[in-house]
Amino acid sequence: MTPFQFALLNTDPQSAARRGRIRTSRGDIETPIFMPVGTQATVKGMLPEGLKDIGAQIILANTYHLFLRPGHERVRRFGGLHRFMNWDRPILTDSGGFQVFSLGELRRITEEGVVFQSHLDGSRHLLSPELSVAVQQALGADIIMAFDECIPYPATREYVLHSTERSTRWALRCKQALGEEAQQALFGIVQGGMHADLRRLSSDQLQEIGFDGYAVGGLSVGEEAEVMYEAMDFTLPLLPQDRPRYVMGVGTPENLIEGIYRGVDMFDCVMPTRNARNGVLFTSFGKISIKQARYQDDDQPIDPACGCYVCRNYSRGYLRHLYQSGEILASVLNTHHNLHYYLDLMAQVRQAIEEGSFSQFRRQFHRQRQAQTKSTEE
Q1: What's the sign of the alpha-carbon dihedral 126, 90, 35, 69?
Q2: Is the pTM of this model over 0.85?
Q3: 44-69, pLDDT tens digit by residue?
Q4: Which residue of 144, 156, 247, 342 has the fewest C-beta atoms within 10 A of its own C-beta?
Q5: Is 337 within any annotated ligand binding site?
Q6: Residue ranges of the domains in the chain?
Q7: CATH number for the segment(s) 5-269
């Protein structure tokens, strides 16, 4: 039986925001939480010790990529993903579904699973619910995800219904494959596109099967932010209060604040790391592009309100120099700052919920960004 537990500690009196704690055998996870993405058993540009220093409690790794390279059985022989990458805190693995379905013409969906061609060498594979679970077990993740189809947007109602029902059948097969004595927590993924009734159908069916937590899938796939928030509005209240709620692949700091306002506990996204490698930095007043010439003589830190190692020690002018010179250190320092910003934002949110002031925190958060936007336009 998995040692996984979830406790709801505080709720915000003026919103659906929640403060919780997930207990695993490798440590507690304070929620709401952002999970840095370590696709190939590494968070790009970050040492494990650096991740701990900035407050990372859990990271995400990718089943599809690790299945193809170096192979899940090889990782198992190394003692599992935690030992392989020298990370002793919790790990969540996605099912591989999003990556497989993003392959387009290189994959074919059947009831059995998905036949796909590797993006590395063109070899053909069948990823089924049973194999997805077996790979995640071999990796040794603390939280694993049910195999599902990430429904594209837009899609016809008929397609969404057919896909959602198949994902439910796959979810049942995942739970059966994991077994009753598993040491890992299994999350089901609510699908249904942008249709409220299909989201309800998916949620009801998954809760009948029973999972340790519930994710909301099929968001941040090209829809406008307001459409995403609307889907959260009619999906999150359907989920049980005593289980973690995870919105997958989301997103910007604004998305996170709005998701928390609606009751989300867990997030992941490549945005802070990918933006860092492209010279885009997140701050308390919005985003800046360090590659812009305006920063070449700027002796200020990225964000005067930030206490991270980068902001304490380096100027915008130096960071622009590193980026323009193509230095590896640019990605390292930018990534450190961006992930610190995301994780510190979550720490501030948790404190605000504990104090019953999250709604005020949210208003101030948006006010700062609106002021920066107005200043930039002027």
Answers
A1: negative
A2: yes
A3: 999 999 999 999 999 999 999 999 99
A4: 156
A5: yes
A6: 5-269, 279-370
A7: 3.20.20.105
